[in-house]
Amino acid sequence: MKQVNLGFLGCGNIGGGVYRLLQEMQEELLRRDSIKVSVTRILVKDIDEALQINAAKGLDVPRALLTEHVEDITSDPTISIVCEFMGGEQPAASFMEQALAAGKHVVTANKVALALNWARLQRTAEEQHVGLWYEASVGGVIPIIRVLNVNLESDQIDRVFGIINGTTNYILTRMASEGKDYAEVLADAQRLGLAEPNPATDVEGMDAAYKLSILASLAFHGRVTYDKVYREGITAISAADIAFGKEMGYTLKLLGIAKKQGNTVETRVHPTFLPKDHPLANVDGSLNAIFVHGKYCRDMMLQGRGAGDMPTASAICGDIVEAALSDKVHYPTFDNTDTPAPDFVFTDDWITRAYIRLSAVDAPGVLARVSESFAAEQVSIASMIQKEAEEGARVPMIMITHPAPEQAIRRALARLAEDECTVEQMIRVED
Ligand code: HSE
Q1: Res 325 pLDDT > 80
Q2: Integer Cα distance of 382 and 353 in angstroms
Q3: Is the pLDDT of residue 35 over 70?
């Protein structure tokens, strides 16, 4: 039997979930893997406050385990694995670095700290021959990190895309099923505890962009830094756009999309219309799902719970057990640099189809001039609907283009004469 002592940095929802799961599974882990996993120290900001919060959650953590000093964990020679549950970039990243430098394995679900400090953390881990484990940082319990880092390491992945933020998927699903506007559904999601009081990281796409930078780096074997991910959130999406898209056979999702062709890489997070029978179109509520395409594996899709304390705890405990049992650590084999991979050419001129909603004056020749603007940039319109105006009002004109370069679509929209036609919305469409 091997005794494995853990130090926790933080003990919020996810940390509490891991604590609970380890308690429940302790005998099983002893029987299955001959390891006795014990949490021996937990870093909190304020011990009295932490005791109150834990009591309110029904989590029985002895006061003796709690400390307000990170050194009580990083300098404790009996602790071999440090699990980080603080969230946010700092001080989580520097605490993880301290733990790695002290020769401890680190397990984290913190995509922000990882995406922004990955190279340094991995370098420190390699120097100390310890592991940096982060399966739960993307897609919650979906084992996408291992799939890319281990299972598909010998493949040539050219596409990874999917729903990697549960909060926005929940909001868009409810907007679609109830016909409600963004603000109303967000307020309700906040009331139910399904969206953060400050939802910016989720609804403005940052959370998905951090995750996509990690996935794309692993998939393409080169560093895709966060700043190379184009990002649009869901805050400007209206119930009308979702309804028009539905009328045209599409469902709206916030997707993270990473593609590589030769050395050209595109990484983008934005609302995306998908044909309603696309497998991702039917991944609803707070579920996540990720598609991978590779030269040899072809198409595959993984789906599951991307958030929530216990699903995330399940993925984290998988990392803990692997860290406890591994003699040799597997690091990503690409050059994990602070800066973008020098041989990647990052483009913002990807090929896409676009849904465009215009507000146009209802007069002879307007539609012809709109068509001329698109024709001038070689953008072909695939389908279109125009609603009749109430007397004197402008009309919504909705079109979906054939595939075209992103920048050509933008140039076509810039050509429209503002006095007769304004661009109200542009949403990319994937097949
Ligand atoms: N806030 C994330 C989401 C979960 O809504 O998917 C943690 O990554």
Answers
A1: yes
A2: 9
A3: yes
In tens, the pLDDT along 115-165 reads 999 999 999 999 999 999 999 999 999 999 999 999 999 999 999 999 999
Q: Which of 85, 114, 141, 167 to mutate to test the pocket of ligand 1 (most atoms within 8 A of CB)?
A: 167
State the span(s) of the chain assigned CATH 3.30.360.10: 144-304+340-346
The continuous run of DSSP H or E covering 357 comes out as strand 351-360
CATH 3.40.50.720 fits 2-133, yes or no: yes
User: Which amino acid belongs to residue 266?
Assistant: E
Catalytic: which of 104, 111, 211, 253?
211
Give every CB contact of residue 401 below 8 A, 6+ residues apart in sequence. 353, 354, 356, 374, 379, 380, 381, 382, 409, 429
The answer to whether 83 and 316 have CB atoms below 8 angstroms apart is yes
Handedness of CA 188, 190, 191, 192 (dihedral sign): positive
Token representation of residue 214:
């990690």
Tell how far the Cα of 355 is from the centroid of ligand 1, in angstroms: 27
Distance 196 CA to ligand 1 centre (A): 10
- Predicted local distance difference test score (pLDDT) of residue 393: 74
Start and end residues for every CATH 3.30.70.260 domain found in the chain = 351-429
Pocket of ligand 1 (CB under 6 A): 165-167, 202, 207, 306-307
Which ligand 1 atom is the nearest neighbour of the CA of 288?
Answer: 6
* Residue 392 confidence (pLDDT): 66
Tell me the three state secondary structure of residue 65. Answer: helix
We find that the CATH architecture of domain 144-304+340-346 is 2-Layer Sandwich (3.30)
Whether cis (ω within 30° of 0) applies to the bond prior to 91 is yes
Q: Tell me the CA–centroid distance for residue 336 and ligand 1, in Å.
A: 25
Residue 381 confidence (pLDDT) above 70: yes
- CA 238 distance to own-chain centroid: 22
Ranges of CATH 3.40.50.720 domains, the chain: 2-133
Which class is domain 351-429? alpha beta
Atom 8 in ligand 1: residue holding the nearest Cα: 307
Q: Specify whether 211 is catalytic.
A: yes
pLDDT digits (tens, 9 = 90+) for 337-374: 999 999 999 999 999 999 999 999 988 999 999 999 99
